[in-house]
Amino acid sequence: MVSFSKAEMKKVFNCFDEDGDGKISAEELKNKMRSIGEELSIEDVNDAVGGVPLSLEEFIELVSVNGDHQDIDDEKELREAFSLFEMEGQGCITVKSLKRMLN
């Protein structure tokens, strides 16, 4: 099993938290999933998040399996999703690369 640090999980969380309010709403989750090619209905997203916005801790729990972080295949998918936004080769998502991806 591959483990992600809380700092790494927080970076991913912040990408999903579009309005910066410290929670991921169903709409924010749906939008980000769409941006990586996963089209989900709002009902499916509400089922995943229990109908309420997710805090960082709840997000970590959602992407965890039995208290352990997801396996290597899931890490590969996460890195692929990250690479869609990270276009500058700097290992982080810059404002420029985020704007380019969202356009």
Describe the structure.
By secondary structure, the chain is mostly helical. It has one domain: Orthogonal Bundle (Recoverin, domain 1). 56% of the residues lie in helices and 4% in strands. The chain contains six helices and two strands; from the N terminus they run ααααββαα. It has helices spanning 6-16, 26-35, 42-49, 56-62, 72-85, 95-102; strands at residues 64-65, 68-69. A two-stranded antiparallel ribbon has the order 1-2. β1 (64-65) and β2 (68-69) form a beta hairpin. It is globular and about 35 Å long. Residues 66-70 have low confidence and may be disordered. This is EF-hand-containing protein. It comes from Dioscorea alata.
Task: Give the N-terminus to C-terminus distance in angstroms.
Answer: 35 Å
Broad CATH class: Mainly Alpha
Physical arrangement of strands within the biggest beta sheet: 1-2
Which strand-content bin applies to the residues?
under 5%
Question: Pairing-aware structural class of the strands and helices?
Answer: mainly alpha
Helical stretch count? 6
Protein name: EF-hand-containing protein
